[in-house]
Amino acid sequence: MSDLIAVAYDDEFKAEEVRLALMKLQKEHLIELEDAAVVVKNQKGKVKLNQAINLTAAGAASGGFWGLLIGVLFLSPLLGVAVGAAGGAIGGALSDIGVDDDFMRELGESMTPGSSALFLLVRKVTPDKVLDEVAQYGGKVLRTSLSKDRENQLQEVLSNRGIALEEAPA
């Protein structure tokens, strides 16, 4: 089962920067992401979703290929490509995997202009190594499916930007 984590940043580009860092960590097998999406609320207050995977384009490409193949068999490759691409695009647009778009838009509306948020569905993670990398970006935890203790630990690491607080001498 995946854990949902939504973190807000006070910069329009910070969430995308963190997502790129996490993609690098995924290549190193330190984290396994099911989905990673960025919501940006620009200075004018307009909310924009940036998905990691464009399902409509992927569906159109796949449908176009299969349409071409079937069209060649029935001596009408152009018609096959057109029908296949249209069908694939519709199928891709209707299938929604990962974090719910309506949920992200709703949270995006509550953000301040000029900010961004990163929405993650995490399958597996090596917490200490991943937190060391992402703590430097800071952020405020908006929502998670983590336990209260783990959520508080995450917020503390992000708030302190990974710097351990030293206790004052008694």
Verbal overview:
With 170 residues, the chain is of the alpha+beta class. The chain contains 6 helices and 5 strands; from the N terminus they run βαββαααβαβα. It has helices at 14-27, 55-73, 77-94, 101-109, 127-134, 148-159, and strands at 3-9, 31-41, 47-50, 115-125, 140-144. It has a 5-stranded antiparallel beta sheet, sandwiched between helices. Helix 2 packs antiparallel against helix 3 (77-94). The N and C termini lie far apart (45 Å).
Features:
170 residues; alpha+beta; 5-stranded antiparallel beta sheet; 47% helix; elongated
Beta-strand content bin: 15-25%
Shape, please?
elongated
Structural class: alpha+beta
Largest sheet: 5 strands, antiparallel
Uncertain stretches of 5 or more adjacent residues: 165-170
Give a brief outline of the structure.
The protein has 170 residues and is an alpha+beta fold. The protein contains 6 helices and 5 strands, in the order βαββαααβαβα.
